[in-house]
Sequence to fold (232 residues):
Amino acid sequence: MKPLAIITGVGPGTGSALAKRFAAGGYRVAMIARSADRLAELERDIPDSIAVPCDVSDKAVLHSALDRILQSHGTPKTVIYNAVGGAFGTFEQIEPEILERNFQVNVMALLHLARRLAPDMVAAGGGTLIVTGNTSAQRGRANFAGFAPTKAAQRILAESIAREMGPKGLHVAYIVIDAVIDLPWTRERFKAATDDFFIQPKAIADEAWHVAHQDRSAWSFLVEVRPFRENW
Fold:
């Protein structure tokens, strides 16, 4: 039987690339996202994939979705938390409700998912929980007040989970994507940028695959990926 990977935030960029990479590697992939139409299309294209429309910020809906996956397909071997809520603006510009909404997506949903899945994964012999983040998890800039606080909290939550669950056999890792992801809307926004300005979703997925299959004698927690020309 194929191992199961659960991936949240399966959008047109990184999420889809992750689903395709793990399916190509022999996993059955349960794909979680809000867009039922997009998931249905991916389900047709990716063998042994499962479309699970779900708004992860709704605790009850998230638990119901996870219960359906577990009852039908068993305990996952790999879980990738790629769902993200974001907003641009200074602390004076953003509405407090926006920050609260992003906190629900980026932090609380991760907490609910980890609490639901991690114990079963440990009992089944271990596995990997990967959280995808970005540079906002490490610093706050003026125009990121509606986003960076939640990503920083997400990274610290992931580290807390890693320190507790690692000795029990669950590998928890946080991937910082320090780059602009190559998507149609980012190409439109950065029209003057050359190809090597962007990070490719497939390259992110390949690194996530590597992290998910690290030897347990050399587990990583904080992993950073960026284009070779990125100024850091």
Summary: The chain has one domain: 4-225. The longest strand covers residues 127-134.
